[in-house]
Automatic annotation (TrEMBL):
Keywords: Lyase. Its EC number is 4.2.1.104. GO terms for molecular function: cyanate hydratase activity; DNA binding. Catalyzes the reaction of cyanate with bicarbonate to produce ammonia and carbon dioxide. Pfam families: Cyanate_lyase, CYNS_N. It catalyses: cyanate + hydrogencarbonate + 3 H(+) = NH4(+) + 2 CO2. NCBIfam families: cynS, PRK02866.1. The active site is at 91, 94, 117. Belongs to the cyanase family. This is Cyanate hydratase. Residues 78-149 form the Cyanate lyase C-terminal domain. The keyword Lyase applies.
Length: 149
C-alpha cells in the first residue's frame, strides 16, 4: 500500500495545474460551489474538501485520484514563518498589530465579553475603485462567542 500524498505535494500540483490551465481561483470556487476565499485557502492546504469537491477540482485541473485523496485529509492548519514574511501577508500582521487592540475594545463595547470566532467565519476580498488608486476591501465576518462562566 502506498502512503497518501502529502498536502504540500498536492498543493504544488494544484497550483501548477491551475496556472497551466489558465483558471482563476474564482472560477474553481464557482465550479465546486464554494466561496472564493475558502476555496483558495482549502486548495492551499488549510481546509479539507469533500470527496465531491476534491473530485471536481481534480477533474477541472486534470489531476488524478491521489491528489483528490490528499485534498480530503484533515490539514494541520497554521502559519509557515517563511510565508509570514511575505509583504502582503506581513501587512495583515502589521494592520492587526496597530488596530487589533482598538478592534478588541470596540467588539467588547458592542457585544460584551467574548471573541470573534475564526471557525464559524467568513472572509471576503473585493476591489473598490478610488481616484487615488483602487482599494482592497477585506471583510471578516465571524460569529460572536461570549464567555460564559
Amino acid at each position: 500500500m502506498t502512503p497518501i500524498m502529502t498536502r504540500s505535494d498536492a498543493v504544488e500540483l494544484v497550483v501548477a495545474a491551475r496556472l497551466r490551465r489558465g483558471l482563476s481561483w474564482h472560477e474553481i470556487a464557482e465550479q465546486i460551489g464554494a466561496a472564493p476565499v475558502w476555496t483558495t485557502a482549502a486548495l492551499l492546504g488549510q481546509h479539507p474538501l469533500s470527496a465531491e469537491q476534491a473530485g471536481r477540482v481534480c477533474e477541472l485541473l486534470g489531476l488524478d485520484g491521489t491528489v483528490a485523496e490528499s485534498l480530503q485529509r484533515q490539514p494541520s492548519r497554521g502559519a509557515d514563518p517563511a510565508r509570514m514574511a511575505d509583504p502582503t501577508i506581513y501587512r495583515f500582521t502589521e494592520a492587526l498589530a496597530v488596530y487589533g487592540p482598538a478592534l478588541k475594545e470596540l467588539i467588547h463595547e458592542e457585544f460584551g465579553d467574548g471573541i470573534m470566532s475564526a471557525i464559524n467565519f467568513r472572509v471576503d476580498v473585493s476591489r473598490r475603485p478610488d481616484p487615488d488608486g483602487d482599494r482592497v476591501v477585506v471583510t471578516f465576518d465571524g460569529k460572536f462567542l461570549d464567555y460564559k462562566w
